[in-house]
Design a protein that fits this description.
The structure is a homodimer of 118-residue chains. Chain A is mainly alpha-helical and 118 residues long. Chain A has a domain of 78 residues: Arc Repressor Mutant, subunit A (Orthogonal Bundle), CATH 1.10.10.10. Helix content of chain A is 58%, strand content 10%. Chain A has a two-stranded antiparallel ribbon with strand order 1-2. The first copy, chain A, is elongated, with a radius of gyration of 20 Å. The structure holds a DNA duplex (30 and 30 nucleotides).
DNA sequence: AATATACGCAACCATTTGATTGCGCAAATT
DNA sequence: AATTTGCGCAATCAAATGGTTGCGTATATT
């Protein structure tokens, strides 16, 4: 019986979320895609969706909590920009699986090559 | 006003979940890590956690629904194995961001910009 | 044949999630 | 100075999530 990496420890409210939780929601993924192209204010982001400004604002908050998005106050506006560095965490986690699908590619390559030879 | 890729459409029950939802849960991520090493039965998987067999079984079901896990009946046992191919979907999605963190590595600009922001 | 094992299904429950609405405040604009 | 704009906060609500317990059934084991 092993206690795996499934700690859900909720130290304080701002640590509640992790990156995986954050990208689970399709709206949040869309927001990230937007912000990856250029930084925007919450209002500008919300304009791309049909849900309310508040709904989007909450999503941004969640993205900010896990540092996928960084907010910078500028006068009365807030500039949200994407933090690629944080997204790397997902990439790092996926590393353990990457070999497997690369292997399958190699196998496919081999198969194709074998076919060619015949 | 653009309707982004945030379709949540629930056509049938088995399409309910997507890969991102599936990997949002830490227990499910742990299950995937286990299965990536070798295929196991639900009971064997459950033995690694302290939650009940049923709880784990439900997680497996979710992983199966989005095809991250494939189940194969063998007698009274079910063999669960990891489907790396499906995990690639996450990798594909991340492709749009990957360039950014690679860029940031090259430029020590990044550090300077961060300083400026403060 | 009787029992044990492996597992799914259904009902139930507490908590979390995603969304809405109403309000307030500080920075811009007039 | 008065108004508009940008945005966060809090309350509220339906739906989804993660978990538990009890039960049924088919395959193994004795």
């Amino acid at each position: 019986m092993v206690a795996y990496i499934c700690n859900r420890m909720i130290a304080n409210k701002s640590m509640r979320r992790d990156v995986f939780q954050a990208i689970a929601d399709p709206t949040r993924r869309a927001i990230l895609s937007l912000l990856a192209m250029n930084a925007m204010t919450p209002n500008a982001i919300a304009a791309h969706f049909d849900s309310s400004r508040q709904a989007i604002s909450k999503h941004i908050q969640i993205l900010a909590e896990c540092q996928l998005v960084v907010q910078k106050q500028q006068g009365r506006e807030i500039n949200c920009h994407f933090n690629a560095e944080k997204m790397k965490e997902v990439d790092v986690w996926m590393e353990q699986f990457r070999k497997q699908w690369e292997d399958r590619y190699d196998q496919l390559d081999n198969l194709l090559n074998d076919q060619k030879d015949k």
